[in-house]
């Protein structure tokens, strides 16, 4: 009897050895930092044409109205491109002749994230600056004076201050200057320019919002060197953790397909216990049983002992609170049952679900059924015919103190009875 109990203890260790492929988890460090690259920009404010204006005509010092709308793409956290359109309206100031004209433009601009280039992230995560500049085409139109449209090219440059409101929205303030080339009309639309090839100069001041698009948490505007260092640190930590050999089998966890092998059992180069006949019992333990029960009693002793373990409640699958998904660590119990049924095609099994006492009895009975069904699904996906598996919902297990968190973990389980 003592020898049999010793063999039971050894085999119990194999239950904790892991479900090999089913229970394997892998930590894969990311090689590329992911961030959103697209954004939409919407601004509104004032304008001031500094030249050219017809003598006697003038706008207010801060003239309403200006607006622009743009789409921006960042190639990386420091550089990008944006395409935007702008609209300005000019009207006379008090005590000057009446006029009304409009200025529209479309511009393609390069963008430099000054905040990232200067490592703002070392002292703030909410303030940024973008510099932008490029070229485009524009038009002045008026219904006063001669009327009609004037077309020209322009250069544009400016600075945009940013305050991050969230990972999706930033408040912006922008100051932009525009220089027109070959502008034939004054901004008031009442006369011809006389200043040369680069004629009209227009200043815009505006406030607005930037909306960040994409599935990632951060936009390129807010990804700096500190984030990269953090990512590198996480990758190094992952590697260092992966080099630990938890089960002391000589294979680091990073490469170990069976990271909880029974101590002292021989493993292959992937950290898996050697099981030549694939019966779920490592060869060394099987050899021990053979010696313990005799040469002729090997099969009976092994299979009989395994069946006693299963029916005795030593092979279980456990669940987190209010969950019907088996914990990864306990999937080895399903693997143990699967291997036994594959080696014994005439056997069937009851899959019996339990819950703790937290919650109503009806809810807990249904939860225990879902747990049993989840384990059955794992077993059928592993190759066991569903007709050999019978689900039983036993509901609440009242055998432990329900006020003990640790004790409740023990009863949130699925057990088996093979027949």
What does this structure look like?
The chain has 419 residues and is an alpha+beta fold. Helices cover 24% and strands 33% of the residues. The chain contains 8 helices and 12 strands. It has helices at residues 2-15, 114-117, 225-242, 283-293, 298-311, 331-343, 361-381, 405-411; strands at 38-51, 63-74, 79-91, 100-113, 127-142, 148-164, 169-181, 198-213, 317-318, 349-355, 389-396, 413-418. The strands form 2 sheets. It has an 8-stranded antiparallel barrel. It has a 4-stranded mixed sheet with strand order 9-12-10-11. The radius of gyration is 37 Å and the shape is elongated. Residues 1-32 and 292-301 have low confidence and may be disordered.
Strand coverage percent: 25-35%
Radius of gyration: 37 Å
Q: State the helix count.
A: 8
Provide the spatial order of strands within the biggest beta sheet. Answer: 1-2-3-4-5-6-7-8
Find the structural class using helix and strand composition.
alpha+beta
Helix and strand succession?
HEEEEHEEEEHHHEHEHEHE
Helical proportion, percent range: 10-25%
Bulk shape: elongated
State the end-to-end distance: 24 Å
Residue runs with pLDDT of under 50 for 5 or more positions: 1-32, 292-301
Q: State the total count of DSSP E strands.
A: 12
Average predicted confidence as pLDDT: 81
Largest sheet at a glance? 8 strands, antiparallel, barrel
């Amino acid at each position: 009897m003592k020898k049999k109990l010793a063999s039971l203890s050894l085999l119990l260790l194999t239950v904790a050895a892991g479900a090999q492929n089913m229970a394997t988890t892998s930590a894969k460090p990311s090689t590329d930092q992911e961030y959103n690259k697209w954004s939409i920009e919407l601004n509104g404010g004032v304008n001031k044409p500094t030249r050219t204006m017809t003598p006697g005509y003038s706008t207010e010092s801060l003239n309403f109205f200006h607006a622009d709308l743009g789409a921006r793409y960042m190639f990386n956290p420091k550089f990008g491109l944006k395409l935007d359109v702008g609209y300005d309206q000019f009207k006379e100031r008090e005590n000057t002749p009446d006029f009304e004209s409009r200025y529209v433009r479309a511009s393609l601009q390069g963008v430099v994230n000054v905040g990232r280039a200067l490592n703002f992230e070392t002292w703030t995560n909410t303030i940024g600056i973008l510099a932008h500049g490029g070229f485009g085409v524009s038009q002045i139109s008026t219904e006063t004076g001669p009327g009609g449209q004037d077309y020209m090219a322009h250069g544009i440059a400016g600075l945009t201050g940013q305050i991050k409101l969230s990972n999706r929205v930033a408040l912006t303030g922008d100051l932009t200057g525009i220089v027109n080339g070959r502008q034939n009309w004054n901004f008031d639309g009442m006369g011809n320019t006389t200043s040369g090839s680069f004629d009209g100069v227009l200043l815009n001041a505006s406030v607005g919002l930037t909306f960040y698009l994409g599935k990632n948490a951060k936009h390129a505007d807010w990804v700096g060197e500190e984030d990269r260092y953090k990512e590198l640190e996480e990758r190094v930590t992952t590697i260092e953790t992966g080099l630990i050999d938890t089960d002391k089998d000589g294979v680091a966890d990073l490469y170990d397909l069976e990271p909880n092998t029974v101590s002292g059992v021989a493993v292959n180069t992937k950290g898996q216990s050697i099981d030549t006949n694939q019966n779920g019992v490592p060869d060394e333990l099987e050899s021990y049983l053979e010696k313990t029960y005799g040469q002729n009693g090997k099969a009976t002793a092994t299979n009989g002992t395994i069946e006693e373990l299963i029916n005795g409640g030593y092979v279980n699958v456990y669940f987190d609170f209010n969950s019907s998904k088996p914990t990864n660590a306990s999937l080895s119990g399903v693997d143990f049952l699967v291997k036994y049924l594959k080696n014994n095609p005439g056997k069937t099994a009851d899959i019996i679900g339990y819950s703790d006492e937290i919650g109503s009895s009806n809810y807990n009975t249904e939860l225990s059924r879902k747990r049993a069904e989840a384990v059955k699904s794992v077993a059928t996906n592993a190759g066991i015919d569903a007709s050999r598996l019978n689900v039983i919902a036993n509901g609440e297990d009242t055998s432990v103190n329900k006020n003990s968190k640790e004790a409740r973990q023990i009863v949130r389980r699925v057990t088996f009875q093979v027949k």
